[in-house]
Amino acid sequence: MQTEHEPIPKGSTPPARASGVDPLSEIDDLMDKKRLEEEEAAKRSDQLEVDRSDFAREFTRVCDEQARPAMEAVLERLRRNGGGGLMDERPENARQHHTHRLTLWMSFRGEITGAPRQDRHPYLQLDADVDKRTVAVSEGDMWQGEGGSRSGKTAEWQLADVTFAHVTQEVLGIVRRALK
Question: For residue range 125-153, what is the model confidence (pLDDT) as tens digits?
């Protein structure tokens, strides 16, 4: 039998003390706790990715079913009255850290030639913010460098707020400010 001061041979288990308590059992407990914490963190991370993917898919569906049809109706009405515009859509691209974006650019005299510009064309832009699970709303009401009082992010909507009626109402507000 070894005493407390004798070295323990390599590869052997230290003997239990007379009290029957393993002095190294705390290592087992600490290692188990750490392993469980890492497993829980991995589960939370996996769930976060699922939630982000679900939100991104739902944003795409809402754009397809609500926002895009409203924006197309606005473009049709603008063209009927001598204006024009375009919709610009940027799909999500995780490698470039881009989220899904849908933008309506408007012109009150003919179609937009060249790239649309925030200081020349009124716009409504919807960006999926997958981290916050909201829709970032940006708008501008400048028309050919004049007028307007807004440019940039103006609100955050929930997905349920992105309806045909709400998008139409927001665009009408932009048109009113741009043409006053």
Answer: 999 998 899 999 999 998 876 767 778 89
